[in-house]
Write a structure and sequence with these properties.
Distance between the termini: 49 Å
Bound molecules: fe (ii) ion
Mean pLDDT: 90
Radius of gyration: 22 Å
Shape: globular
Oligomer: single chain
Helix content: 55-70%
Strand order of the largest sheet: 1-2
Order of helices and strands: HHHHHHHHHHHEEHHH
Number of helices: 14
Structural class: mainly alpha
Largest sheet: 2 strands, antiparallel
Number of strands: 2
């Protein structure tokens, strides 16, 4: 899972996340790179113009940009920010539900939850690999996460208080993620688009298992139904905020659209999500905590109440209920895994030595 808020600007100025310099990986494929101290010659200027024209033509034709193709710095930077924030969200997103694996109410629920949380870890790995093709290493991206420079989805800074929260996360959080992520399957950057196709299939399972779990709980006791309703009440507004700030306050959106990275605006995605979710609440038998929510016959969609953006920004800026805990757990997991990385590197070095000996 993940969120739209992925495309939030970093708190520090460029190079965010250790972004690679100007077209590092592209220069080899595109011809001689310009030395930073060397004045660009007319030939270089002409080459740059031709590369830019090819890039624009690919976007116009709805084609794919691949890692070795020329891309403008702004494109590389925007993608790296979004993809790394997306990857971070996947792995931090393992925590709120991971807390419930040992407390799942049955073997079946435990097996489902284990599979889901493992999927999220896998999504992080696909996305780090895809982001590395932009010229920034996984270590650099993880350093940015662990030092607090890089963002991840704010939704994971809320606590999972009851078992119903696990179902609501699957239903609403993964549901919102699907709404956001399906358009990314058509994103202009090939590695990101291809990673998203598999991720979206797995997210569909996440959403369905959450809904099914809640259906079972809603057929249980009055206390179980109240627990589900309470979880829905707590998650609804943070989930709506997952789609990111209103279009009017989203300075990155226009460029994201031009680059073929962002296909549908934050507000349009949010509206689609509300319209898709309301009928599901009727099937479940829960209400949404929004007195202003009603069908608008003229607009042919639902009106909904105002989102408290001050709460959203408060959490983005590190002051949510679980920000500190999530980051501390992530840092500890990374430190605890150091021996695995060391062992893998030692094994790779041994293998290399052996193959060099054999070749000699
Ligand atoms: Fe998911
Ligand atoms: Fe995911």
């Amino acid at each position: 899972m993940y969120t739209q808020a992925l495309d939030l600007p970093e708190p520090v100025s460029a190079p965010a996340n250790g972004i690679a310099g100007n077209n590092v990986s592209a220069s080899g494929a595109q011809g001689a790179a310009v030395h930073p101290l060397q004045a660009p010659s007319a030939a270089h200027a002409a080459q740059h113009a031709a590369q830019s024209a090819r890039f624009e033509a690919t976007l116009d034709a709805d084609g794919k940009i691949e890692p070795r193709d020329f891309m403008p710095d702004a494109y590389r930077k925007t993608l790296l920010r979004q993809m790394s924030q997306h990857a971070h969200s996947e792995i931090v997103g393992m925590q709120p539900e991971g807390n419930w694996i040992s407390r799942a109410p049955s073997l079946k629920r435990k097996a489902i939850l284990l599979a889901k949380v493992q999927d999220e870890g896998g999504h992080g790995l696909y996305l780090y690999s895809a982001a590395e093709t932009l010229g920034t290493s996984r270590d650099q991206m993880l350093d940015a996460l662990h030092s607090g420079k890089a963002k991840y989805s704010s939704i994971f800074n809320y606590p999972t208080l009851t078992w119903a929260d696990v179902g609501v996360i699957g239903w609403l959080v993964d549901g919102a993620a699907i709404m956001n992520q399906v358009p990314i399957c058509r994103c202009s950057y090939g590695p990101y688009a291809r990673a998203m196709i598999r991720i979206c299939k797995e997210e569909s399972f996440h959403q369905r298992q959450g809904f099914e779990s809640l259906m079972v709980q809603m057929q249980g006791t009055a206390a179980q139904r109240a627990m589900v309703q309470d979880a829905v009440n707590r998650w609804w507004w943070p989930v709506l905020a997952m789609f990111g700030p209103p279009d009017a306050d989203s300075p990155n959106s226009a460029q994201g659209k031009r680059f073929g990275i962002k296909r549908i605006s934050n507000d349009d995605l949010r509206q689609k999500f509300v319209d898709a979710t309301v009928p599901q609440t009727k099937v479940l038998g829960v209400s949404l905590p929004d007195p202003a929510l009603q069908w608008n016959a003229a607009r042919q969609c639902h009106d909904y109440g105002a989102i408290d953006w001050s709460d959203f920004w408060n959490v983005v800026n590190g002051n949510g209920p679980c920000n500190h805990e999530r980051l501390a757990t992530r840092r500890k997991a990374h430190a605890d895994g150091q021996w695995v990385r060391d062992a893998a590197l030692a094994y790779a070095a041994k293998q290399e030595q052996r193959s060099m000996k054999e070749a000699a």
